[in-house]
Request: fold
Amino acid sequence: MVVSYTPLTDKLFKQFSTLVYQQTGIFLKPEKKELLNARLGKRLRHCKISSFKEYYDYVLNDGSGEELIHLIDVVSTNFTSFFREKTHFDYLSSTVLKEFAAKGHSGDYRVWSAACSSGEEPYTLSIILNEFAAQAQRFRFAIHATDISTKVLAIAQKGVYAEDKVQTVPQGLLKRYFQRGKGRSEGYIKVKKELSQPITFQRFNLMDQYPWQGELDVIFCRNVMIYFNRETQQQLVDKFYTCLRPGGHLFIGHSESLTSINHRFQQVTTTGYKK
Reply:
């Protein structure tokens, strides 16, 4: 039986929007009302709840916080791909890593994929860093991969993708770092251990306190700030600056810009910045 709901009212949309903003910093514009109406309808059916008002109260009164996580999963946009916005990875490989090696630094090279979605970005970073490590002596690295959505993190941690998802990976790298499924797993690709081992996946809210004060070499936070208002963007950029070591790099999405934000970064490439 198909259950129909009274459409989301403007008042309730504003209440949901305020809750999401308070918890995540994501700003839902009024034109997102119909999208939220459709996505929440699926969640209501799953929870066997009969109205949006009842669901809103349910989220507020859920002491475990689990339903709030599901709500955040609903509003999160998680489009990504391997080697997305490839110029960033090219610049990391050709310039950033070579500068790091030339200065004779030692210790782990630490990278943060700050909105890792279903894992394509951190695995791409692992490919770049593995390739560099094969040429550079004593180069070690660790990748922190975080996202607010538990749904996409579960996909990322499995590291299994349909073959059409890896079409942007060069064939040589595909053979080196991925394993093709056979039998019941035919049509799927799994990342190999050397690709997944350096990555730590963790749920993390960008509004929370950051534990990496002056410890990171590179931060990728791409196509995320477009969902925040200017005040929240300013807070994020300030936090990113504090997390980076001197000379560290921040990469944001090609559709994003820091021009309207007061920041201390030096722009070094297309939507790429240096501390």
Notes: Residues 143 and 199 are 5 Å apart (CA to CA).
